[in-house]
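Predict the 3D structure for this chain.
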Amino acid sequence: MMKDAETGRAEVQRRLNEYVEHLETIARVFNDHARGLGLGVRLAAQGAIQAVRNGTGLTRAMRFCDRPDDSGVLHDAQLMTALNCIGELLTSPQHNGLVLGAMQSGKTTTSLALQFAGPMVYLLTGRCLYPVYLITSHTSQEDQTKIEIARFLDFYGELSVEVDDEHH
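Done. Predicted structure below.
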């Protein structure tokens, strides 16, 4: 019985570490790419990671580890594409952008990552920016998009965008 409890604790810890490592990777990719683009911001994951470690973020971590697929999960290329788009918004504020791509190419999560544009533009310019997300009127696509938005906000809602040390 004691061995089962130890095994269970070890499995929970492994899963928590999986989520923490994902958050650390997302923050590293964001920060490296934002620095390379000269965006003047960084992504702080410490609060989200601390929540997992102190127990208040356990549900979020378990939902991340138990997800049936990668819907709403950020990948490096999607995040970097979103940051490239945000860089364009900052340097050409009079232009609008549109994320286009083939089916199942990652455009939904790339578009969701544009949620970072709001706090980034506000912190750097004081302007309020409201990303608009347009989808087709197909019920199945709307349902899938709602799932992805909910997961994205659940997985990354505790991350914070901050002005980097060079731009304070």
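The CA atoms of residues 106 and 122 lie 26 Å apart.
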